[in-house]
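User: For a reading group we're discussing how well predicted structures match intuition. Take Eukaryotic translation initiation factor 5A. Before you show the prediction, I'll give you the sequence so everyone sees exactly what went in.
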Amino acid sequence: MSDEEHHFESKADAGASKTYPQQAGTIRKNGYIVIKNRPCKVVEVSTSKTGKHGHAKCHFVAIDIFNGKKLEDIVPSSHNCDVPHVTRTDYQLIDISEDGFVSLLTENGNTKDDLKLPTDDSLLTQIKDGFGEGKDLVVTVMSSMGEEQICALKDIGPK
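Assistant: Thanks. Here is the predicted 3D structure of Eukaryotic translation initiation factor 5A, as structure tokens, for the group to look at:
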């Protein structure tokens, strides 16, 4: 047909897999949704009736899973919303550095040193106190859309 060479430049990064589409009408309370490019946990969903112009609308009230901010969005129930891939991973706490970074032991025996202590005061106090007492602590790290944060703590006994 033609002798021209076609070069396609990909503008998308690996972030294309950070979310997946889901119909707005199927997202429920305690599910996840992306609002203003932030991964959020849905705390309230209300659906309005179909109006003069067609679509029923879903009103989402959600809390950002990393900073705790409340966000709201209204989407036609037949449209797709982005839903973040949210994973939780447990790591054993090895050390806490002076600058607030933690050293964690991964399943394959490597260390993960790029996480800061959580900003939540009660969790922060529990981690520092437990570590200071020499307890064996396992932290749960929630990761989504390229962000990670410690979200829970388990005490698995003295060292």
